[in-house]
């Protein structure tokens, strides 16, 4: 394979022209040589205070009466987390992360079992967990795998966050906070290498303040070859990545009461998809050699594959004015662009079926395989948020604000089979060389509607969507003088107006079919208004123990399905949740125990139903489409379930600091979720004409929600006269979850993913003095999946294909050297 990846040397040389190396990362202040586990303890060996911004102001985690998990810089480094994809091992309680259909550039996020039931990668569909970086909402799942910069924290806010964070936070929100310019000199350089040809380079430079200006520049390169070798010459290997980019932050502070922070980032992300393996026999004809029941390091048969490329860039201007001693005004303005190509030849499992036809002009064959799915995705967004954060006297604090958000998204997708098994079991790769660009039956009214990635096959779908959203919110906490200020009553409310519109240009290689039987693009336009309230009552039972009860709501926006026949709009889905919990510290802050229990109603869930492609006659009757023999693809519409579902569970987190240098963490979560059953509104075509609807309600499966999950970690620091030794080990386990919300064709649930314990570790020698310069050196060695545990993190079954799915990553390891000034 000829690599298109840019070397670390080339990138660092390019950034040196600007005076400092830089790549995509979120900046860092000067810190000790190794930001290690000791950060969890203060000078006395007690657990240190954790500061969060979940309620739009800096607060102590233990005094914030909502369920939050926080990953700090030491945790990120110790677990060797380079992107949000690395959180798929379950290291944060109640947060589940998985690449969508093996596409590592697009992430499915789920908190407490809520967040996604269908394909949120489409232009007019949204996820249910909001991701924010420095207060800016990231509107698309595509691009979430981009490299993470030097972070202050990753805060996971659990449960509906509709009041302060707004739309698409019915499951919760990820509040990612980056480190800002300090105005003091600091430089950190890290270089590392590992197995599978991996290497990494990081540079973080914080410059001294000059005429009220402070500058911070950050750069990052992380690259790894594929973990599964593709035997087809000249083609990419599976599960590789190359991430790089730059971030610059410029802070202007002309007075102690005002500052303006401008940030610009530019991110490049090149990935190949995960390898989808067939692990058992189905009824479709496939040679036994194609079965791979264990995690493979080489494909069964070589197939076409190339890198999927993503580009992101964004501008953010945050202005903060301390207008009075008890009032802060803040403005957050942002503009972001995203493009993402998709080349998904995930393997031979999902595309196998017996046929004697010759789709896409290929020679007649017995059994097709290797469905090559190509897509092109473009998005831009801009937003403006205003906040007023303050206190009235000693007993009332508040935050009020407003948000305007606009998004424009366009996509197109193609899918075709590039290979087949003949009757002798031989694997043949063949690309279609001819074909009508738009479709295979002469409907060419949309010839100029898209820019396809492959010229000789039809375009399966193409659409455009626009979203405009406005919100006004307020939240206040009253601390009455009675009970010695131990009572905290919080109320909040958010009004939102969502407008969404779109145009379906192509579906299943045809122009969409209007109800009058003509082929032409179809548009939709809808508007939804919502009010999301929140009430929270917290009581300080003692100085270090707080109990609370909370009720809140959140929602996921409505939209339309670009795989559908008619592009009909569906409504928002929502969650209304009660939560009770307590936060506590014991033994002079050496033990921290936080527990939360919750239950709620899951309303109007957006579920998908699919049927074979059909059309309408001139009188509106359902008929077989003209030329329908050229496609067996199905179409999908999204509907809101009439019956409510249920969400409930328990979360516990325990942290111990038995003595100076040793910190122990553990968590357990139990989650139960029920999705409301729904009747498939599609009708099935009848042999004699017309169609019939099956009125039997069909149960849906909760996605990406293990009933039980455990995680834990141990951190130890041992100082010696000239160096400091540090050790870390963490592990996670869950009981398995579904990766599809729809039961399979035989009417039984799809199988759960497999359980397995994944262990990660890191050892380092830090604080090595490099002489008069004051620089400190840290040498470290890390391992992810220490014992090379293997299990299917996504598993599917059909009668034709048998069991197939994606395995977790194999053991990866490497060494790092870091120098800090």
What is the beta-strand fraction?
over 45%
- Kindly report the average pLDDT value: 85
Overall radius of gyration: 27 Å
Largest sheet: number of strands, sense, barrel closure:
22 strands, antiparallel, barrel
Number of domains: 1
Protein structure class: mainly beta
Please mark out the parts with pLDDT under 50 across 5 or more consecutive residues, or reply none: 1-38, 350-365, 438-447, 628-632
Helix content: under 10%
**How many H/I helical runs?**
2
Distance between the termini: 40 Å
Number of E-type strands: 45
CATH H-level name... which superfamily? TonB-dependent receptor, beta-barrel domain
CATH topology-level fold name: Maltoporin, Chain A
CATH A-level architecture: Beta Barrel
In the CATH scheme, the class would be Mainly Beta
Choose one word for the global shape: globular
Give a brief description:
This protein is mainly β and 821 residues long. Helices cover 2% and strands 52% of the residues.
Account of the 3D structure:
It is a single chain. By secondary structure, the chain is mainly beta. It has one domain: TonB-dependent receptor, beta-barrel domain (Maltoporin, Chain A, Beta Barrel). The protein has 2 helices and 45 strands. It has a 22-stranded antiparallel barrel. Strand 20 (396-421) and strand 21 (427-429) form a beta hairpin. The protein is globular. The protein starts with 7 loop residues before the first helix and ends with a strand. Residues 1-38, 350-365, 438-447 and 628-632 have low confidence and may be disordered.
């Amino acid at each position: 394979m000829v690599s298109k990846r840019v070397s670390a040397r080339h990138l660092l040389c390019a950034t040196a022209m600007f005076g400092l190396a830089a790549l995509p990362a979120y900046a860092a202040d000067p810190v000790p040589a190794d930001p290690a586990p000791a950060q969890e303890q203060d000078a006395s060996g007690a657990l240190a205070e954790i500061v969060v911004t979940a309620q739009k102001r800096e607060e102590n985690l233990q005094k914030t009466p909502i369920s939050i998990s926080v990953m700090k810089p030491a945790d990120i480094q110790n677990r060797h987390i380079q992107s949000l994809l690395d959180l798929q091992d379950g290291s944060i309680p109640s947060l589940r992360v998985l690449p969508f259909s093996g596409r590592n550039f697009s992430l499915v996020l789920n908190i407490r079992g809520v967040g996604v039931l269908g394909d949120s990668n489409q232009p007019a569909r949204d996820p249910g967990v909001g991701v924010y970086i420095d207060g800016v909402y990231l509107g698309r799942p595509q691009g979430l795998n981009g490299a993470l910069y030097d972070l202050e924290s990753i805060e996971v806010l659990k449960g509906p966050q509709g009041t302060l964070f707004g739309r698409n936070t019915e499951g919760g929100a990820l509040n990612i906070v980056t480190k800002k310019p300090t105005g003091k000199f600091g430089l950190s350089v890290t270089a590392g290498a590992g197995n599978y040809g991996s290497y990494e380079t990081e540079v973080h430079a914080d410059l001294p303040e000059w005429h009220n200006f402070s500058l911070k520049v950050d750069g990052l390169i992380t690259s790894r070859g594929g973990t599964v070798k593709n035997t087809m010459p000249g083609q990419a290997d599976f599960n590789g990545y190359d991430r790089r980019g730059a971030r610059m932050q410029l802070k202007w502070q002309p007075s102690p009461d005002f500052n303006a922070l401008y940030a610009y980032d530019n991110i490049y992300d090149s990935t190949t998809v995960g390898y989808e393996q067939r692990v058992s026999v189905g009824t479709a004809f496939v040679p036994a050699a194609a079965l791979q029941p264990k995690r493979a390091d080489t494909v069964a048969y070589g197939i076409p594959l190339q890198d999927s490329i993503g580009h992101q860039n964004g501008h953010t201007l945050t202005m903060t004015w301390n207008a009075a001693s008890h009032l802060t005004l803040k403005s957050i303005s942002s503009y972001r662009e995203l493009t993402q190509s998709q080349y998904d030849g995930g393997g031979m499992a999902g595309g196998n079926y017996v046929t004697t036809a010759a789709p896409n002009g290929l020679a007649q064959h017995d059994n097709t395989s290797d469905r090559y799915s190509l897509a092109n995705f473009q998005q831009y967004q801009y937003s403006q948020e205003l906040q007023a954060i303050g206190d009235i006297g000693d007993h009332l604090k508040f935050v009020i604000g407003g948000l305007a958000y606009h998004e424009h998204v366009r996509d197109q997708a193609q899918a075709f089979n590039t290979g087949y098994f003949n009757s002798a079991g031989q694997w043949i790769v063949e690309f279609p060389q001819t074909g009508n660009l738009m479709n295979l039956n002469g409907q060419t009214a949309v010839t100029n509607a898209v820019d396809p990635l492959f010229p000789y096959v039809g375009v399966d779908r193409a659409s455009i969507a626009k979203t405009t959203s406005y919100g006004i919110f307020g939240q206040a906490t009253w601390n009455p003088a009675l009970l010695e200020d131990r009572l905290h009553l919080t109320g909040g409310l958010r009004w939102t107006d969502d407008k969404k519109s779109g145009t379906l240009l192509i579906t299943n290689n045809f122009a969409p079919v209007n109800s009058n039987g003509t082929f032409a693009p179809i548009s939709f336009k809808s508007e939804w208004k919502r009010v999301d309230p929140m009430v929270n009552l917290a009581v300080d039972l003692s100085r270090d123990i707080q109990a609370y009860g909370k009720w809140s709501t959140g929602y996921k926006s409505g939209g339309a399905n670009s795989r559908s026949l008619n592009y009909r709009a569906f409504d928002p889905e929502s969650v209304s949740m009660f939560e009770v919990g307590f936060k506590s510290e014991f033994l002079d802050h050496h033990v921290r125990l936080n527990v939360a229990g919750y239950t709620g109603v899951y309303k109007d869930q957006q579920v998908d139903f699919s049927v074979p492609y059909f059309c309408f006659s001139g009188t509106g009757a359902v008929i077989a489409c003209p030329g329908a023999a050229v496609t067996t693809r199905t179409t999908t519409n999204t509907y809101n379930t009439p019956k409510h579902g249920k969400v409930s569970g328990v979360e516990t987190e325990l942290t111990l600091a038995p003595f100076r240098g040793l910190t122990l963490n553990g968590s357990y979560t139990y989650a139960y979720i029920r999705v409301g059953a729904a009747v498939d509104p599609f009708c099935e075509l009848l042999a004699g004409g017309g169609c019939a609807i099956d009125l039997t309600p069909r149960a849906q499966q909760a996605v990406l929600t293990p009933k039980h999950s455990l995680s834990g970690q141990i951190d130890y620091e041992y100082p010696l006269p000239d160096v400091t030794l540090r050790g870390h080990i963490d592990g996670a386990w869950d009981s398995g979850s579904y990766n599809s919300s729809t039961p399979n064709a035989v009417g039984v649930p799809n199988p759960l993913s497999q359980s397995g314990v994944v262990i990660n570790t890191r050892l380092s020698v830090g604080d090595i003095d490099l002489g008069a310069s004051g620089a400190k050196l840290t040498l470290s060695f890390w391992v992810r999946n220490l014992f090379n545990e293997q299990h299917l993190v996504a598993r599917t079954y059909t009668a034709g294909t048998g069991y197939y799915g994606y395995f977790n990553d194999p053991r990866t390891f490497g060494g790092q050297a870091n120098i800090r000034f």
